[in-house]
Design goal:
Elements: E1 2-6, E2 21-25, H1 30-39, E3 44-48, H2 51-57, E4 63-68, E5 71-72, H3 87-90, E6 94-98, H4 102-108, E7 114-118, H5 123-133, E8 137-141, H6 150-166, E9 171-172, H7 174-186, H8 190-196, H9 198-205, H10 209-215, E10 226-228, E11 231-233
Parallel strand pairs: 1-8, 1-9, 2-7, 2-8, 3-6, 4-6
Antiparallel strand pairs: 4-5, 10-11
Bound molecules: D-malate.
């Protein structure tokens, strides 16, 4: 099994992902919010690339959620705070989800053979899923407008560290090695490090300290969200289940 990390989605088009097993990470905050919504009973989360498309497909029992410059978008029901996706607000609902980097990275990787959604909140569960699959995998860091972001790379390194501790013979590309090393240097104090990242500082300034506290929890849940037909879920459709 070989691990690779894409430090930003910039150099990969949609076809790059076909036949790959991909894990998408946007710690602050998109994939943490997806995990929170599904953990609290959302039926599915539908990531979209544009605000216009989000508006177009919203309606009925859907929740329209997302952000621009970290703030809730006018006309949307929710922003992109994982704390908004409470059980009361989300259970049984479809969440149409638009964000600056995270939802776009999820859409970019949509042709993956397997696409999983990871954050610190569900990191060991995703690690165990990858071990079970026992295939080469690619971790896609959503980054920040095509640029490197420390928090996604650290989370990628942590994911690799957990897999490496539970298996033998894990091969690493240079980017995977770099992520693992970086995590060993500054991945211990997750909350402290998140507060020091560029986006973490912006979120603190915007009053989202509680989000950072929530997002920094390791293994808050054991769900492994996956993308199927454009929607992120945690349950396989009844008709797809083996007898
Ligand atoms: C993104 O997708 O860029 C982020 O989730 C932004 C945010 O913190 O809301």
């Amino acid at each position: 099994m070989k691990a690779h990390v894409l430090l930003s989605p910039l150099n990969a088009d949609e076809l790059f992902f076909s036949e790959k097993t991909t894990v998408v990470i946007d710690v602050l905050r998109a994939t943490s919010s997806v995990v929170a919504a599904l953990q609290n009973g959302a039926r599915e989360v539908i990531p979209v690339e544009t605000m216009e498309f989000a508006m177009k497909i919203s309606g009925g029992q859907n929740i329209l959620a997302g952000e621009r410059n970290s703030a809730k978008i006018e006309g949307f029901d929710f922003g992109n705070s994982p704390l908004e996706f409470t059980e009361e607000a989300t259970a049984g609902k479809s969440v149409i989800f638009y964000t600056t980097n995270g939802s776009k990275a999820l859409v970019r990787a949509k042709f993956s053979k397997n696409l999983f959604v990871a954050s610190y909140l569900n990191i060991t569960a995703v690690a165990e899923k990858l071990i079970e699959l026992n295939e080469d995998f690619l971790i896609l860091c959503a980054g920040d407008n095509g640029m490197f972001s420390l928090e996604d790379t650290l989370c990628a390194g942590k994911l690799i560290e957990i897999i490496d501790s539970k298996t033998s013979g894990l091969e690493l590309t240079d980017a995977a090695k770099a992520s693992l090393k970086l995590n060993s240097v500054c991945g211990e104090d997750i909350l402290g490090t998140l507060k020091e990242t560029e986006h973490g500082k912006e979120l603190l300034e915007a009053g989202f300290e509680k989000d950072l506290e929530f997002i920094s929890q390791i293994d808050f849940t054991d769900i492994v969200p996956f993308l199927e037909s454009g929607a992120i879920k945690i349950k396989v459709k009844e008709e797809d289940k083996a007898d």
